[in-house]
Every structure is written in C-alpha cells, then in structure tokens.
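Re: that backbone. Tokens:
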C-alpha cells in the first residue's frame, strides 16, 4: 500500500459513519432541548489562542499541538479542543451575544492532538462540546452534567459514572498547589521528567501525568477538598446537592484535574468501564477566568466535550450499533435492455416519492442481482424479466421473510408497507 491515512487518524467507513450521524443527531436533539445552539468555528486558529487558553504547561500545548506557519508568517494551530475557539468567537461577536444573560452554544467537529496513538486515542478525533456562558450558579454545573448523563442514558449506555471534583479558584488554588508540592517533594525522585518540571511550574498538572509509574505514587496524595476556600466549597456542595436531587450517580475523585489549565471550581469526567485505559468519554468543568483572560469581561462559564470516537467504541462494544443500520428498501433488477430501462425509470420515481431504492446495473443475471440484494440488505428485491415486461408487472421478493409475490402496477409497488 503506497498511501495510508496518517498515523493516529482513520477513515470512518460507511457503516460507522451512519451510526455516527444518527448518534450525533440524537445528541444534538437533547442539546437543543436544553436550549443549546450550534456554533461553527474554524478548524485552525492563531496558536497563541490555545497557548493562552489551554495553558503553557499542559501536555496539549507543550507537546501535542499541530502548529504551522502560514504563508503570511503567522503561527497557526489546528484546534486541539473547542472551548478556546468558542470563547474567541463569543468575544469577537460580542454584540450578537451580549443581550442574553446566559449564552448556550454547542460545536461538533474534528480536533487534533499529536498524541501517542492507542485504542481510543487518536491524533484526529471528534468532539461534540457545549459551552454555557454567563452564570456562576451551581445549578448550571449540575444541569449540564445531568444533560451529559441523559445523553449517554438515551443512547443506551447504562454503566457510565460521573467523577467530579473541584480544582478551586484564584484564592484557594495556591493553597492546593502548596499541599500537592509538599506531598510530592518526598516522591519527586521517583517521578518522570515531566512531573519534575511541573513541580515548580504547575504542580496541579502532576496529577494529570499519564505515566503509569508516576500514578502508583499518587495514591497517598492528600485530599484537596479540605484546602478549598469557602466560596469554592459552598459551590462544590451546591453542585453535589443538585446532582443528588437529580438522582445522578457520581463519585468524588480527588485526583481529577483534567488536562487543561482553564478550569476553576468544578471539573468532571463521565467514564465507561468498557473503554479500558482511555475510559473517559466526556470531560469538562467550570472556567470562570478564561473569558477575562482572553480579553473579555470576567464572565463565568461551564462546558464539556464528548469524544465521539470513544462513544462509538462503547456503543459497538455493547452491540448497540447493530440496531442502527442504513436500510435501502428496494433493489430493482431489470433483465435485458428493456428491463434495465424500466428499472431505471422505476428507481427514479421511487426516490422522488422519498422511497430508498437502488438499481442493479447488470442486465443478464437475476442470481447476481439477488446476491447483491442480500449484500445491500434491502428489504425487497424487485425483478423485471421478460414475463414481467409482457404483463407490465413486478415480481417482488421479501428477502427477510423469504416470500415472493407479484404486483401489477408502480403504485402498488410504492404502497408496499406504507
Ligand atoms: P478533553 O478535551 O481532553 O477534555 O477531552 C474530552 C473528551 O474528548 C474525552 O473524554 C475523550 O472522550 C475525547 N478525547 C480527548 N482526546 C482524545 C483523543 N486523542 N482521541 C480520542 N478521543 C479523545
């Protein structure tokens, strides 16, 4: 094979694409019921935007961005995530959004990170994400997480669980950082180079280290909740309270920090045990400083992103993708020149009447036509041979029920099962 897709990318073949689109449509329906509207932003932005928003000491910015210089010598990056772009678009189109107290937006599309590819981890992957901008209410955190859970439940995933935590704010984050530093000091010689470099620069990031050896040393890490300031603690308790009221299952994971620096207060992940090491299918949290950091007024916000590639893997694992299949209703098999002509006219009329139909283009083999019908998994194979041409009729084979019958007009054909 001379050309293959770049490492870490893949082709999404028709069967998966079909399930994918149905799944995305279902998700979008739910998002719209929660009053989110779609925004589409460019796939590349100024690299600086992500450096600023996601954080210089994160894996994403330090190692994983696809950066290039364009012909105007500008440093651009393929977007590694959606929030920075949505916030940039929110600020750039501020007059459009400013009247509403809360703006709820969703996006849907590919993201790019130069990661080490493995099952469930790609260099081009797809996310549907939401951003609710303008409220600091813990109801917003809870409601958005409830929406995330509802999405997975409605898609048939019963085993998902929410891990939730608070990473504090400008007031208590320094205390949390100190707490982590004083614990990490004693284990530092055992940790990887990245952890060592983050010890000074951004100790919270140490918890996000993916190195399995480092992970074993984090077990005794002190619980950060006790370091939260009153406001963050009250907020966290409020969120938990509302989750309880919504009867959502959750667990507090005191090691959860997420791989992006913009989070404040609530962070969460929705996980599926079916995914192995890369078990998060959705991640997000509150980001009350980001909008100001990118040049806007201080505006609280909450968002999450669902990884569609991983979601598909879980649906597949559960056998749920089999239920979602594209179905063409008719394959029309016409024999000889005349049969092919009638087949051609018939499929055109069926399609105009919004009935899915395909023509078999070989004019001399009913058997080959029937084999094709089985491959296409059509409901009905329709044969137009000499007898049918003479009688102006159609022989119809119901492939599932293995029954054959004759219809005497196009209208009769159209009305089958209707
Ligand atoms: P993040 O943007 O890192 O908060 O991730 C949100 C979700 O996107 C994760 O829970 C994953 O489902 C998905 N995701 C993130 N990175 C990748 C990747 N490299 N490959 C596939 N899915 C990913």
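Recovered sequence:
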């Amino acid at each position: 094979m001379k050309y293959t897709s770049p490492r870490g990318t893949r082709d999404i073949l028709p069967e998966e694409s079909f399930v994918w689109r149905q799944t995305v449509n279902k998700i979008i329906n739910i998002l719209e019921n929660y009053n989110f509207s779609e925004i589409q932003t460019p796939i590349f932005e100024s690299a600086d935007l992500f450096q600023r928003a996601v954080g210089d000491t994160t894996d994403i910015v330090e190692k994983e961005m696809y950066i290039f210089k364009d012909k105007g010598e500008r440093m651009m990056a393929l977007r590694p995530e959606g929030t920075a772009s949505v916030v940039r678009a929110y600020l750039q189109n501020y007059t459009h959004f400013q009247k509403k107290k809360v703006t709820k937006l969703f996006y849907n599309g590919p993201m790019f990170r130069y990661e080490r590819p493995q099952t469930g981890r790609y260099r081009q992957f797809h996310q549907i994400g939401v951003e609710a901008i303008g409220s600091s209410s813990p109801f917003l955190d809870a409601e958005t997480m409830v929406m995330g859970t509802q999405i997975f439940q409605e898609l048939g995933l019963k085993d998902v669980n929410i891990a939730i935590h608070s990473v504090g704010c400008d007031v208590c984050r320094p205390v949390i950082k100190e707490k982590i530093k004083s614990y990490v000091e004693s284990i530092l010689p055992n940790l990887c180079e990245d952890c060592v470099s983050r010890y000074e620069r951004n100790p919270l990031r140490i918890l996000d280290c993916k190195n399995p050896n480092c992970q074993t040393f984090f077990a005794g890490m002190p619980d950060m909740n006790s370091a939260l300031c009153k406001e963050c603690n009250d907020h966290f308790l409020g969120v938990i309270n509302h989750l309880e009221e919504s009867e959502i299952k959750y667990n507090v994971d005191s090691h959860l920090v997420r791989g992006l620096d913009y989070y404040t207060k609530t962070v969460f992940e929705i996980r599926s045990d079916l995914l192995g090491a890369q078990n998060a299918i959705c991640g997000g949290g509150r980001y009350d400083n980001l909008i100001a950091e990118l040049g806007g007024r201080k505006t609280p916000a909450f968002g999450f992103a669902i990884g569609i590639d991983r979601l598909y893997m879980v649906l597949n694992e559960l056998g749920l993708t089999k239920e979602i299949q594209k179905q063409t209703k008719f394959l029309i098999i016409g024999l000889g020149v005349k049969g092919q002509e009638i087949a051609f006219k018939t499929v055109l009329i069926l399609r105009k009447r919004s009935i899915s139909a395909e023509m078999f283009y070989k004019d001399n083999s009913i058997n080959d036509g029937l084999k094709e019908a089985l491959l296409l998994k059509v409901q009905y194979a329709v044969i137009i041979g000499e007898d049918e041409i003479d009688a102006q009729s159609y022989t119809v084979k119901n492939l599932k029920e293995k029954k054959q019958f004759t219809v005497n007009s196009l209208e009769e054909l159209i009305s089958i099962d209707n």
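The CA atoms of residues 166 and 225 lie 7 Å apart. The mean pLDDT is 93.
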